[in-house]
Design a protein that fits this description.
alpha/beta, 5-stranded parallel sheet, binds zinc ion, two-stranded antiparallel sheet
Length: 412
């Protein structure tokens, strides 16, 4: 594999190659094609969503000798120089490390000087990190920029920008990739780069990416470098199965296996919490799950079998374990203890364990009725649990609709 990182190698070179940001692409291409591009832009959005790439494409097309329909040709000397990072027309500044007023004054002094191309483009990254005096100096220039100068301000945190700066710029917001878009992008890159990566490894990569193309491609690179079969993938489904089956041995073996593969207990705990959270969302709000839609169906099936109360209990127990791990010399012990609590509910008498058991009993009582995701609602007429859509005369106790007091200490 080439030494160049996948993210750099598959950086979009044209607006049409920029995935998942259609609204931004449309706005920029149209304004450039119609010759009414602005002089100051604010690109905001999470890291790895294409802000800097878009700024460079904009810089390219504004200086391209042969632009077409708002796109750069990517072949002329100017386009190639921008791609190599050697163009005299494009200046990138990381505001996080050059945040003082001197760096800004220096930039402004040079901005008024001529440039070989048609436009002098300044790309200021992490612009919310500028000091107040530096921001004030920038604002003065934004109010009356030299006619050939274009500013692109990029930030992950637009709330930290002053209203005046925001009002002087055209603000374009970049969004996280949806899981389906990211899945498609990762698969395309893997195929184009000739990487042999298994489906489960792709899923793990998309998960780790959490909506960011950059993070997903870094994860893909790690997986590809370690064989591509996702051998180090942790079977998180199996963990949920062991909670359903109340099989402590199986759950502890899964943890031991993951740790022997080099997973650190904290990261593993975070992954388990994330998985349970996705399971909970797959029942309550499937649109919010960061997984490809087919996986959401599989996960929601598993999550329904465990039940909402069990999922919440798992998130709470592992969450407290994670908090305590910050001070613990041996975090694995805390993870093991939390897992024993979750897979040996009979040994547990705290209220959330009881609620989970009641909910399970209710599901068993409701013969032939698909397992309810939530504890059964109470029929106001009879004061009894409503099972299968109608009130029955049963001895089933009415369970509260959500577990309370479930802050059991995982290390007790
Ligand atoms: Zn060109």
């Amino acid at each position: 594999m080439a030494t160049q990182s996948l993210y750099r190698r598959y950086r979009p070179r044209r607006f049409s190659e920029l995935k998942g940001q259609d609204h931004v692409v449309r706005a920029l291409r149209t304004s450039v094609a119609e010759g009414r591009s602005g002089q100051a832009y604010l690109f905001s959005g999470p890291r790895g969503t294409g802000k800097t790439s878009s700024a460079r494409i904009l810089a390219k097309v504004l200086n391209c000798t042969n632009p077409d329909g708002g796109e750069p040709c990517c072949e002329c000397e100017s386009c190639l120089a921008v791609e190599r990072g050697t163009s005299y027309d494009v200046h990138e500044l990381d505001a996080a490390s050059n945040n003082g007023v001197d760096a800004m004054r220096d930039l402004i002094d040079k901005a008024s000087l001529g440039t070989p191309g048609r436009h002098k483009v300044y790309i200021l990254d992490e612009v919310h990190m500028l000091t107040k005096p530096a921001e004030a100096a920038l604002l003065k220039t934004l109010e009356e920029p030299p006619p050939h100068v274009v500013f692109v301000l990029a930030t992950t945190d637009p709330q930290k920008m002053s209203d005046t700066i925001r009002s002087r710029t055209q603000h374009l917001q970049f969004h996280l990739f949806t899981a389906d878009d990211l899945d498609a992008h990762v698969r395309w890159v893997a195929e184009d780069a000739g990487l042999d990566v298994s489906d489960s490894a792709i899923e793990q990569v998309v998960n780790r990416g959490a909506g960011s193309a950059r993070d997903a491609l870094s994860a893909l690179e790690l997986v590809a470098n370690s064989g591509g079969d996702g051998a180090e993938t942790v079977p998180l489904d199996e963990f949920v199965e062991s909670m359903i089956e109340q099989d402590a041995g199986r759950a502890l073996s899964m943890v031991a296996g993951a740790i022997s593969l080099g997973h650190d207990p904290r990261t593993l705990t975070e992954e388990l919490i994330g998985y349970l959270r996705n399971g909970f969302l797959s029942i309550m709000a499937p649109d919010l799950v960061q997984l490809p839609s087919q996986r959401v169906d599989e996960l929601s099936e598993l999550a329904r079998r465990l039940g909402a109360a069990g999922l919440v209990r798992g998130i709470e127990q592992l969450g407290s374990a994670l908090t305590e791990m910050r001070q613990a010399p041996d975090p694995r012990v805390l993870l093991d203890v939390a897992i024993v609590h979750l897979t040996m509910e009979r040994a547990d008498t705290d209220i959330s364990a009881l609620v989970t058991r009641i909910a399970k009993l209710e599901r068993q009582l409701a013969d032939g009725v698909p397992a309810a995701a939530q504890a059964a609602p109470v029929d106001p007429g009879t004061g009894r649990a409503t099972l299968g859509g109608r009130a029955r005369r049963t001895e089933a106790p009415a369970a509260p609709s959500s577990p309370t007091g479930g802050t059991a200490n995982a290390a007790e």
